[in-house]
């Protein structure tokens, strides 16, 4: 997908090279063939990486389910990387990956949505071979999101997404690498805390930080590396006593750039460019606050699918466009539903100003392996995307998927609450909607999914009295809170995080569907949008909404845009309605 844009703007090195493009490819039809024989086989097909074989853009476009697929890529090392340490990086491979370089097994990675890397330095020759074995079973205990585990898509579950589906690239460092940079801004103290991990730490190492705003150097700090992880507190001085610090909001997405260098004996080992935004999200007395001020969330559900490319965006412009079109419709946020998105989406949300909820793709079978898989994927998600100011909330579970007995099963409730507490342990700066939609457990967002067709029905249902007695509220026929779970009104805020889902009659029929009755034309759809949205806006206890949804997704045709991401009508008409509520 990306040949000229750095894959990770939040963790970028200058010396990098894309390995996207044409790879050799094979389906594993010989399950008993030893791996060493596969390494010598000819792969009969070609595939365009990073697109999964199930989508047309890959060049294969096969709907048959295959547990295992193989990839091969031959490459020569770019001249600028010669004499450096070289790293092979994968954005995401669904689901389990084994990787070889020049016949040597580099290692493996489990998790279909998160990145991994291997060092190649000692293995490189003039011509090099990378082989990837990707295993993606129809296993309901692995995080799948909207990938159906049966052959034919059904309801709101779609095609599978197997193998390499995010960028593959090389990076080079001069010496020992910086492994992680964790940045925590504090707008109340005008500071940013940097925790830098360097796993090859040596006594005497130094870390040099340079902070820029709009190209102007505003702070330089050099600190001795304490150990494998070094914590440095950087104070930011206001430009003047009127504007103070440049805060990040959707309306004014101010970003500070930071360069971090690892020094050993005065020699640069590694240089990483990153950035941060001075942004705070919190809840006070049932209200959501952005930078200590009340802020009403007007969000749209975005599943991140494209007709020709599946879960992979066709190009970087497509990711930027989705942020821009959401803002053009008057939304100030997006709930990335059942998908850990490509890092460049979060970059554009940071740069252009769009709040985002980060949601873990669901598994669907409560068992020990699901607990292990979801916990690992969630941890890796938080580690990768911690620095993005656009991300304001984590969603580890959705609508009790994978925890179908959470209503009254103590074990499943413990699992859900463990995800809440894990998020707060790793990232206390963001909100958590633990089981989004219904049967809430310990949570910051008391979330409601309700697809009533008329605003009057919503107004009558969610009265102040009803919301003060959560046991009386049944969104989607489900209890708002699970059994024996206390409601903490002082610590949480109510939101309608799914509603609407309105389809046009011309789009429905056959397998295609929307929520409720389809509307006969754009005018009727917009009027129904106005009716249900303004009803939610006028419920005093509700702090925001998330409309279903931004685009059509295969048979689910209730998007404001079609599956080619083209608006079905003038986006300004939706914006006009959304603009009726400010704070």
UniProtKB/TrEMBL annotation:
Residues annotated as domain Glycoside hydrolase family 2 immunoglobulin-like beta-sandwich: 178-279
Highest taxon, organism lineage: Bacteria
Name assigned to this protein: Glycosyl hydrolase family 2
A GO BP annotation: carbohydrate metabolic process
GO molecular function: hydrolase activity, hydrolyzing O-glycosyl compounds
Location of the Glycosyl hydrolases family 2 sugar binding domain: 18-134
Entries under Pfam families matching the protein: Glyco_hydro_2, Glyco_hydro_2_C, Glyco_hydro_2_N
Segments crossing the lipid bilayer: none
Keywords in alphabetical order: Glycosidase, Hydrolase
Family: Belongs to the glycosyl hydrolase 2 family.
Domain Glycoside hydrolase family 2 catalytic, first and last residues per copy: 282-451
